[in-house]
Structure formats: structure tokens, C-alpha cells
């Protein structure tokens, strides 16, 4: 069922991008024309017959390529960029504390209905009471370092706006500083709250993102950090969320 939903995501996106195929056709036919002219120029005595043969051969090549794009499975048919987006594994460049860091990540398809890439060399995923926790593999001494995690949950009956207001009110009773960012587009489209308990290296920091689950509810993403970890773990968590993708529900 999960694979079917994933294939449907790719298939729906492909159908919505028919203009891209028209562009692809245009580019390909332009290349056919260029190739015909190039080969004719190389011939000493060009004639209509060679021209027709060249055109026919190149047209067959185009048709075969187009057929391959349109008849393979949805995951293979998405003109390359979707294969890159949802590849089982890929390498991404992360900007960590001002440095570019190439990182191998692995696609995780969750039963809550979302996709996310995880750096499995640094993090693990644990499901606890229906909530997904992304945890550091090496959290350090718990008597010294505060807790760090990213938690993903789903609220099926409340909108991002409702949850945002509720959490903002709660944070103001618990934290020294609360910043209500409202609507954001980075690292994902939704609403964002930030709060901290001070300016010491180990002061607790929390970030919330609320994003529409497309079914009348919302995903709640909580990042628990401390001030010194904000540029490390915080940046890595946000990089994961850049590829956070909701799988459309099956009809």
C-alpha cells in the first residue's frame, strides 16, 4: 500500500507536468533538425533520400525515448528530477556552522504518510507511542548535555493555525523568550514558533513547525535543542525538513 501511494505521488506529479513533456519534445525535434543539417553538410552529394533516412532514424530514436518515458513505472518515468528527489539514497550538501558538508542520506517512508531523508551515520529513528523521534546516535553524557531530538506527530482534527495558537500560548508560560514567526517557507511551508530559556551554552531551545497534512489536520514537528547545538543539530534537522514530503492519501 505504501509503495502504491508513493507511485501515485510520482504519477500524479508527472501528469501535472505535461508542459514539461512538450518542452522535451521541442528540444528533441530541434536536435533532430540540427543533426540532419550536420550530416548533410558532411555529405558531398546530399539528396532527398539520405535526408529522409536520417530524419526517419532520428525520429525513431525520439519515439523510442518518449515511449520509454511514458511507459515505464511512475518512479522511473518522472523525467529524472523526481528520481533524484525520491531516490532511495542520495548525497546532499549541508551548510553546517558555515561549512559545506557532503552527507549521504537515506529515504524513510513513514506509515503516518510522509517521506523524509535521514542521515543514518548521525541519527536514528525511533517510534514511541505513535510519535517518530529522530535522535542523535551519540548524544553525549546526559548529565552534561541537554536532550536533543526532532519529534514528528500528526494531529488529524486541528489545523496548523489552531495548533500554532495553542502552542504559542503554552510556550509563553514555560520559556523566557518566545518568538512567533508565523508563516514560513523554509525549511518547509507552514507556521513556526521558537523559544529558549536564556543565553547560556546549555540553555534549552525549542522550535515548532506546523504544516498542513492535506486531510484537514496537521503535522507537528518539534525540535528540542540547546543553544550551542542550534547551529549543528538544529541545522541538520532543518535540512531534513527541506525534503519533508506528504504522500497523497489513496482514494
TrEMBL record:
Origin: domain of life: Bacteria
Transmembrane stretches, start-end: 54-72
Record's keyword terms, sorted: Membrane, Transmembrane, Transmembrane helix
Protein name: DUF4367 domain-containing protein
UniProt organism field: Alkalibacter saccharofermentans DSM 14828
